[in-house]
Structures are given as structure tokens and as C-alpha cells.
Amino acid sequence: MDIQQLECYRQQIEQGHLIPYIGPGTLRGVINQEDGTPIPADSDSLILAMNNGRPMAPKLMYEFPRAAMNLELKRGRSFVERFLTQTYGEKQWSVSALHQWIASLNAPYIIDINRDTQLQNLYADREYILVVGCARLSGTQYRFQIYHHSHGNYQVIEQHQVNPDLPVLFKPMGTPLPSPCYIASDADYVDYITELMGGFAIPAFLKLRRQNKQYLLLGMHLNRDTERMVFSDIIYGANEQLAGWALIENANDKERRYCSKKQIEVIDLEYDPEQEAVEAVFS
Fold this sequence. Notes:
By secondary structure, this protein is α/β, with parallel strands linked by helices. The protein has twelve helices and eleven strands.
């Protein structure tokens, strides 16, 4: 699926009825502007980048959180955080056409589970609310940080200070900006998902905003328990008749059963920046 086909979703995203939920596949085609290497976004590429290009044991290659936990135990939590900050915050990446398209809509609510800064960079010229997922915090029951962005600056704010008229960018898995914070290792996910289930990982104003909404899942599969658990809790309260659409190329039986249970319609397509336009599947 390319940008031209995605235009069929434009109005519903702009009006806030359809919420983009974007994963690592949406970063396909993004490259380092210095050496031309692709951005590590999916689980395998992140593991290889974190381990200096070397594969890890098969049980660790299963998914990034497992590999990150292994290296955290060996080299400390700061090692994983430093790797993600250097990868996404200190390198110059090309701009994704899909992210440019999403930014042009100024949607009321976007969920971006990637840890890069594409949308934040594209939003640099506007006022918006940034919600960042956090884990293993002390001194607070919440697992998020809220920022108000205006004129290129971020300011930490409390829930009651949020302007409900501003668009919201939700980065559940973290970001290097304005202050590095990530959900990465197994321990992070256990804590974060536990608090998601308990209601402490999503601000109250987003719990209201997400009621009866539909979602457009782009650039990710749902064949990992971790991904499904995060997705399920974040979209809680979605439209009961049709919770949305998942663009998953060659979805397996497990993914289809899960989506059916969640009232998500699977469309056998995947975003491809080099693919020519195809017939619209949604109107």
C-alpha cells in the first residue's frame, strides 16, 4: 500500500474518528543520510544493531525485548538506553513519505510505537501534546510523561494542564526527545503492560479521547504476545462493531483469529514506499 491509497483514509483521520497506529514497517526505506544504511526498526534489525551486527542465540533473536533484557543483565540498563538514544537521537535519517503524509493531517490523536523521532521532527513547527511511555519508575504510580510542545520547546506538564484542543502524539515505547525514555527490555514490558492493564500507563484525557474510536494499524504484524498485549490495552474502548483495519500482508491464522476477536478487519496489504498505487479498499 502506498501514500495514494492511504488518501482514502484522510478525512476520517483528520476528524479523529480513525486513529493511526504505526509500527516498524512504516520506517521501511528510511536511511542514514551519512552512510545509506537502513534505520533499524523491526526486532531483528534492532537486535543486530545492538549487538554490533552479530546474531544472538536463537532464543534471544525471537524478539527485541528478550535480547535487550539479556544485554541489560550483562551490561546494565544504561547500555540499552544509550544504544537507542544513539540510534534514534544522534543520527540523521531521511524522512519517511508516510510520516510526512500523517503529519500533514494534523490528526487529533496518533499512536507511534516506534522509538524514532520522525513525527516529532515533522511536528517541530506546531503546538502539540507528547505522551511518552515509561517503565520501572519510583515515586509515582503512573507510567507516562506528558509534554507540551510549543515554538520548538518541550515543557513537562501534568494531566490537568493538557489543552484538549491540541493534537496528541503518543509514543508508548519511548523516544530520545526531549529526554531519553524507553520501553525496551522484558523487565520494561512487564512493568509497562502491568500498569497498562491497571490503567496507570495512559493519561485520563486519552482514555476519554479513545472511546468508540477506530484504528488503522500500519507497518506491523501481531504475531508476538507482547505486541498484542500492548495493542489490546491501548485501543481499549474501541468501536464495538468495527474497531478498525489492520494492513497485514500474509497474516497468519493467529493474527487473523486475534483481529477477529478484537473486531479488527485484516486487509492483505502492507505499506510499501516503492509500490505503485493500487485500488482503494476502504471508503
